[in-house]
Amino acid sequence: MSGNGSRFQAISQITDRDIQPAKTPNRLEELWAIDVFTLSKMQACLPKEVFKSIKQTIHSGGKLDTSVAGIVAASMKDWAISKGALYYAHVFYPMTNSTAEKHDGFISVQGDGSAITEFTGKVLVQGEPDGSSFPNGGIRSTFEARGYTAWDVTSPAYVMETDNGVTLCIPTVFISWTGEALDKKTPLLRSNAAMSNSATRLLNLLGHTDVATVNSSCGAEQEYFLVDTHFAHSRPDLLLTGRTLFGRPAAKGQQFDDHYFGAIPERVQVFMQDVEQKMYRLGIPAKTRHNEVAPGQFEIAPFFEAANVASDHQQMTMTLLKSVAKKHGFICLLHEKPFAGINGSGKHVNWSVGNATQGNLLDPGDTPHANLQFLLFCGAVIRGVHKYGRLLRAVVATASNDHRLGANEAPPAIISVYLGSQLEGVFEQIKQGNVQDSDRVGVMKLGVATLPEFPKDPGDRNRTSPFAFTGNRFEFRAVGSGQSVAGPLVAMNTILTDSLNWVADKLETQLQAGADLNTAALTVLKEVMENHSAVVFGGNGYSEEWHQMAVEERGLPNLPTTADALPVLREKKIEELFAKTGVLTATELESRFEVYAEQYIQVIEMEANLVISLAKTVIYPAAIRYLSELSGSIANLKAVGIELDREGAEKVAMLTKSMMESISKLCGALHQHDFSSIEEHMQYSAKTLRPMMDQVREYADALEGEVADDLWPLPKYQEMLFIK
Length: 724
Ligand code: ADP
Ligand code: MG
Hints:
The protein is an alpha+beta fold. The protein folds into three domains: about 30-185, Glutamine synthetase, N-terminal domain (Ubiquitin-like (UB roll)); about 190-600, 2-Layer Sandwich (Creatine Kinase, Chain A, domain 2), CATH 3.30.590.10; about 600-720, Four Helix Bundle (Hemerythrin (Met), subunit A) (Up-down Bundle), CATH 1.20.120. The protein is about 50% helix and about 15% strand. The strands form four sheets. Strands 9, 10, 11, 12, 13, 14, 15, 16, 19 and 20 form a ten-stranded mixed beta sheet that branches. Strands 1, 2, 5, 6, 7 and 8 form a six-stranded mixed beta sheet that branches. Helix 12 packs across helix 16 and helix 15 (about 420-430) crosses helix 17 (about 515-530). The radius of gyration is 28 Å and the shape is globular. The two termini are about 20 Å apart. About 50% of the residues are buried. The structure holds adenosine-5'-diphosphate (ADP) and magnesium ion. The site of magnesium ion has 3 residues, from loops.
């Protein structure tokens, strides 16, 4: 498969390839949400009372009235069948980063042998996939094969059209027979409800009597790479691991800064348009697209939505990117670091909280009263990130994301908060206890007794911060490009819940003691800043100085690898946080640790095995062929009296020998199977196996720089990155 012939064949096949002409795009109104069973479609076909009941559940999180399920199911089925669906699927999100679905036909065979379509309320509301086939960590002991899926009314049903037909898809949660969450959606829904309760309590204390359900929002910017399938098929590493395990950086990388926002290659543009049209049909509000920093790297970002819906839509986006890419002759890489030496891919999770009555609670606004509210919510976030920064690090810990976070690449593994200079100034004044009447940077007016006014954009951007305030939301930039956004959203909602409770407790005590609201709020905020301002950092997050200062002076944790970060999930403090907010039980949390730890170990071992086999069966033979060609020529020339410099051949021989030795070491290391704990096993993968894999790669990549180009079997970086 990966003979050198196929490398050159791939190049000519790609350059001969016809670019699929772009279809004339449909108008947005013709496409928008046509494949979604939206509220307005429900309103059109459901009896008034039934519609009211379901809308109530969706908007205010009330309990789903089971008597209405049958009626909704019937209309949903009719609608889906009118779209060509024969099957329905409960779609759920197991503890991998992927999407799972179990398909069932609408068919029901009758006593007389005839068949009708059937879809009852019961099957809409509840499904029963085989739970044991999905990762469930520590839950396995108490949990038998049974698992249930249950309809999540707050995320709309839709039909998905593929080459294999049309399927009605119902977003669901996935729980075990004993009621434990086996998925990523259940904790997200719980964290959102907990956050809403705490936020409501604080808003009440601030004098609001009319407070609608508070929801978290999410807008996820997705970075990805596209590589032609002809190349990918000659690169087993790309196919199996999503990244290049070998490959010498091309002479041209991203050093000219000519790719970011550059003109999008035609073939890619046709692909993007296709993806966006499919997204629109599914009601996913794709908004921006552009080239990213690295060659071959792109980004797509939707308009933000309620976190739960955004999270489902994000999963659908990842699925669409991959499946549509195939149709256009690309493979879409969502790995965080597909190519060494050039930028990796992240997923920036923009997050805020708000509701219908008070609006975006992280919007600085322009009235003093709204500012007070903003400052308390923002202060609560600062406290949460400082207190639980370790958790935020743990929820973005994966084998692949280690290549970004632990390496000299953005963003760093140290979790800090960027506020922007103006906001940072305000919080600094709060800390000093003298919020004064002063003009700062000509934008901000600080009234004597009142609180400051901010401009909408209270600061510059800081691309080196893992957690940055960006005007009216926070942007969590350390999330991996292939990750589900649910985990990070759960963590953010949960730490905010904890902080809002703390703020409300403090405020309540102050108010009961007779303090006025402004004084009470400023006192609480002062305490937040006295204890937690160490997490606020506006400088360069990549710098050496910051790494030193963060750890030594500010006491912030630096957890460079997943092996260091994941065990945080086993800490007492984290267990208590999830237990007291009702988001995850101790068993559920432990099961997540076990599942993720196992995934980490498996990824590294799989990669190590592939490193060995590729180095032995693909790279070694190429080096040996070249060597024998070289030494043959040297001998032949010598016979006719011409002495050729032997240095080149010697270098290839030495590199080959060293590579084979490093493979032997890695082979031996892989067979070590004696670990006293899963933590120790992870550390071994991170600190022993990974460096050994890097060592093999170093020799192999050096060989790539020596061996004759026509003998080199693996498509090279310059080809994969630049030929589109
Ligand atoms: P940049 O690349 O400069 O960070 P983008 O415009 O690409 O910005 O992405 C910003 C993302 O933030 C978009 O998905 C946008 O919808 C989202 N966003 C804006 N406001 C909010 C909010 N209140 N809550 C969550 N996400 C938001
Ligand atoms: Mg961004």
